[in-house]
Design goal:
Blueprint (H helix, E strand, L loop, with lengths): L4 H61 L15 H6 L2 E3 L3 H7 L15 E9 L5 E9 H16 L17 H6 L25 E3 L7 E5 L2 E5 L23 H8 L3 E2 L7 E2 L2 E3 L4
Antiparallel strand pairs: 1-2, 2-3, 4-9, 5-6, 5-8, 7-9
């Protein structure tokens, strides 16, 4: 078959147009695929951002709940320095806390006013090695000092089993000590006397009392409390949570701040007890 020059030109022209159409179609398909990929990528990013915002809101809510939750609540988040700082603070006695204290650890009296006390929220490392929320009531004169001491103890992993208000034990010091509770304020007298304890002024604190017992020698007879703490009256023995001894952090921190330790007393030993002179 013979094709004229004109026919050849037409064929070449048609072939060229067909190639352009195919190329255009391929570009359009490529552009559509690119747009779909871009849209999918944007959707993934938006979902990630939404998830991050939700997690941040949930975390903020948990951090806020740590300011009002029950003592002993375990901290489930890994806290930043700033977040940890926010959970060590003192305030005037909140109404809800006063309702717990009224007629229990606090009664109307002429020696210490409610305005002289502060409510402390702090963190402590429990015997399980995990961080927990603790609470305490103390005299305004030592509130900031206690925050500083307990923050250092916390940062160094010093273990405290419980840190609850004495009101959770009906104001019963014996019950609190038996439960190895660390506490401060309780308007009460010194055991066996009519003299107000330093705890009545919020100027004394007992720490891990089962492992740091109260030892008296009445008529030459040794008496150790709380019940069950007898093995820990031997301070030459080596055991966990013992206050005292060379380089022991708790004792060092309190003595640096001017507290007196009951473990240094002569006529009796109160190894759990630190007190500050003042009011």
């Amino acid at each position: 078959m013979v094709i004229s020059a004109a026919g050849m030109a037409i064929c070449l022209l048609c072939g060229s147009c067909g190639g352009k159409e195919e190329s255009r179609g391929a570009l359009e398909m490529e552009g559509t695929a690119g747009k779909k990929a871009e849209e999918a990528s944007r959707q993934v990013w938006e979902e990630q951002e939404e998830r991050k915002q939700q997690e941040a809101q949930e975390r903020a809510a948990r951090l806020e709940s740590y300011r009002t939750c029950s003592s002993g609540t375990r901290i489930k988040d890994v806290l930043s320095e700033e977040e940890t700082d926010s959970l060590f603070y003192a305030s005037e006695i909140p109404a809800e806390v006063f309702r717990r204290m009224n007629g229990v650890s606090y009664v109307e009296n002429d020696n210490i006013a409610l305005a002289d006390l502060r409510y402390l929220r702090m963190l402590y490392v429990g015997f399980d090695g995990e961080p927990h929320v603790g609470e305490m009531v103390a005299n305004v004169q030592i509130a900031d000092t206690l925050l500083e001491i307990f923050r250092t103890l916390y940062d160094n992993g010093y273990q405290i089993e419980k840190m609850r208000l004495i009101d959770d034990y009906g104001g019963d010091d014996d019950a609190s000590c038996l439960d190895n509770n660390t506490s401060c304020f309780n308007y009460r007298v010194v055991e066996g006397s009519t003299r107000l304890s330093r705890h009545a002024y919020g100027m004394a604190i007992d720490i891990n009392p089962v492992y740091n017992p109260y030892v008296t020698y009445e008529n030459g007879v040794e008496h150790i409390s709380p019940e069950g703490s007898e093995p820990y009256a031997d301070r030459s023995a080596d055991f966990p949570h013992k206050i005292g001894g060379e380089g022991e952090l708790c004792l060092e921190l309190f003595e640096e701040q001017g507290f007196t330790w009951g473990g240094n007393w002569r006529t009796l030993k109160d190894y759990q007890h630190f007190q500050m002179s003042g009011t």
